[in-house]
Request: fold
Amino acid sequence: MTVRSPESPPEPTLRTVVGRAFDYLAGMQLDDGCVTDDQDELIMAVWDSVHALRACALWRDSLSPRHDATLRRLRTFLRANETPEGLISWGDRLPDEYSGETSSEYITALVHLGEKDEALARARILRSAQLRSGPWRENHSQIPEAFQTMPSVTGFALRALWLLDLAPSYPDKALEFLRHAQTAEGHWGYNWYYNAVPYYVMMPVTAALARFSCYPPLVKARQYVLPRQRADGSWRFDIKDVLGTYSKQLTACVHTVYALETLLSCGLSPDDPPVRRGVTWLLAQQDAGGSWPGGTFPYPPAEQYAQFQATQDVYATAIVLVLLKRLTELG
Reply:
């Protein structure tokens, strides 16, 4: 137990932490309704906004009138950026393209908003996109073919479908794909197209495997994540240690959210010491303006990406809010 001196300020309540975070997100809303800190090229505007929408939807009962107005404008922005089929993409794309991951997260947000009919219509389209071999594709031309079926795409899709009690077209094939894609170390791979950290891919995959009671891969995943928690309670995977010079990376705050989400799916509870230490560290990282530092999207050190910054503070703040909601529901 920590003993406080008389001069120590009181710890902020969860209500205060969440309120500050939504004040920050509201302050980052642009005239068109999107919520993003990618002010240069707006490459991440839709991705950031989808995650902000999910956070708003989960905490909707706690939103102030000002935040509720932010939510309405955000919903309008995303509706205007849907494909004709109602799915969602990001950046420059061909007319028939969408993002499997972003669309799955969008459907999840709609479910939490209570827009079940709209979510169901989009989820049925997503379900029909499953490959007969089991996985889903990212379905965006900016992702090389070799990385189209990264396991996280399938994990996000399965999570969106189960929220609506929709069985995938090929459930056994999907789970077989995820089981076989796990590495000997216990993760499911990583590359810069998918945030350059194994915990990102593990997060939706372990959630899907837990839902379908596939326990052996979860044991291996837990054994990978737990020993990598740092002394201060955080997690940080440095891709520079693996691939050399990388000047742009997501922060330990983002990595810690991914790791904690993974551990919760692997059976740990909010009261388990690794989770408590991680959450304590994470809460201490909220800045005075209400946000969590996200760093920048990990573009590789190549000339064609030099001008892209893609700051991730909005994204980091949104996923922390999602994690906090999950913890309150579990504990």
